[in-house]
Amino acid sequence: MKLNRQDCIVLDAQDQLAAYREKFSLPESEIYLDGNSLGAMPAHLPARMQQAIAGEWGQGLIRSWNDAGWIDLPQRVAAKVARLIGADADEVMVGDSTSVNLFKALASALRLNQGRKVILTERGNFPTDLYIAQGIAELFDAEIRYVDSDEAAVLAALDEDVAVLMLTHVNYRSGRIYDMKKITALAHAAGALCIWDLAHSAGAVHVDLNAAKADMAVGCGYKYLNGGPGAPAFVFVANRHIEDVRQPLSGWHGHARPFEFVQRYQPAAGISRMQCGTPPLLSMLALDAALDVFDGLDMPQLRAKSQALGDLFIRLVDEKLADFSFGIASPRDKELRGSHVALTHAQGYAIVQALIARGITGDFRMPDILRFGFAPLYVRFVDIYDTVEAIAEIMKNQEWNQDKFLTRKAVT
Ligand SMILES: *Cc1c(COP(=O)(O)O)cnc(C)c1O
């Protein structure tokens, strides 16, 4: 039996997370399926930022480092992130970007695993992960071993030369999820450390770093965590490693006693040593406030909704787009899929532009991927229905085939 729009409205009415949408401020009638690239703005943020800027900065000035608690804000934000990724509060540091944190983690891992020189990763990893690994390899005289994005290929490449296995949990293109626990255990058996990139996991996909015995992890603050453009990222180091970790960006905020202004660097005792310099406080305050949306939220329930949205999308694509030569680049099995679904089409870029013109925002990734992110806190089942209907119309009347949609913009 085919689903109709009314069926989707009923699904929304039964959705126990439906009320969370009210906590976000989205443009009227916008269907936003790009929360995996830039999360939507929590509705309470403008007031919080107004207070932070006019009050804490404008009136409190430098006193706010103490009086408004700015100095230990990164630790408080880290505790909120830790809960979402199955880590202890003192295993997570929030600050810098994902790229910078990956640099620190990779360097630390190579130093922990002295004598081994190979960084193992997948060719299809997110480019910044590959670029950072390439920079690290040059600096440490290490070697990168690239394999296909496939569990068997990864496992086959683990040998006694591999110092660190660096993988992204949810692939940014296909949305395919790796079995973190299994792969980490096999990497450990081969004597390698594991770094997981949680950019497309944190805040949408259930993650339990400590259950998987992960060594290190990094992730993004501006995707499903909704911290705002360029929000601080996070880095996780398992407690069993932290005392031995020496990360090379040895800035003063990672020092044991930053305000003694001594000449020699001495790393802080715990995870604080992963800090570098002064954090971007305003962005940190925004992320801090954004994370309050997750207060009391049950992550398995969130994950179940994200899977249901993805399943609905794939079902409707099968029903309504069969005549238009789309491919589905994501796993159909919801257990193997993150919170976005990727379609392929030769005219993918123009189709995405035509959707955006209709108020439906997804994105395009080279060479032919149309990505639709289903942030479970604010995407509705009826949004999925309307999106697939809109794609069907765009294909039927060749709406995509116009110069204004075919010309590439700088940010896709
Ligand atoms: C989005 C994303 C990043 C982003 O890194 P930045 O340093 O924040 O630009 C890194 N890795 C992956 C896998 C991503 O999806």
Automatic annotation (TrEMBL):
Keywords: Hydrolase, Pyridine nucleotide biosynthesis, Pyridoxal phosphate. Its EC number is 3.7.1.3. GO terms for biological process: anthranilate metabolic process; L-kynurenine catabolic process; L-tryptophan catabolic process to kynurenine; NAD+ biosynthetic process; quinolinate biosynthetic process. The keyword Nucleotide-binding does not apply. The modification N6-(pyridoxal phosphate)lysine is found at residue 223. Pathway: Cofactor biosynthesis; NAD(+) biosynthesis; quinolinate from L-kynurenine: step 2/3; Amino-acid degradation; L-kynurenine degradation; L-alanine and anthranilate from L-kynurenine: step 1/1. It comes from the Bacteria. The keyword Hydrolase applies. It holds the Pfam family KYNU_C. Pyridoxal 5'-phosphate binds at residues 98-99, 126-129, 168, 197, 200, 222, 252, 278. Signal peptide: none annotated. Its cofactor is pyridoxal 5'-phosphate. InterPro entries: DegT/StrS_aminotransferase, Kynureninase, PyrdxlP-dep_Trfase, PyrdxlP-dep_Trfase_major, PyrdxlP-dep_Trfase_small. One of its GO terms (molecular function) is kynureninase activity. It is an enzyme of class 3 (hydrolase). It catalyses: 3-hydroxy-L-kynurenine + H2O = 3-hydroxyanthranilate + L-alanine + H(+); L-kynurenine + H2O = anthranilate + L-alanine + H(+). GO terms for cellular component: cytoplasm. Homodimer. Belongs to the kynureninase family. Belongs to the DegT/DnrJ/EryC1 family. Catalyzes the cleavage of L-kynurenine (L-Kyn) and L-3-hydroxykynurenine (L-3OHKyn) into anthranilic acid (AA) and 3-hydroxyanthranilic acid (3-OHAA), respectively. This is Kynureninase. It comes from Undibacterium terreum.
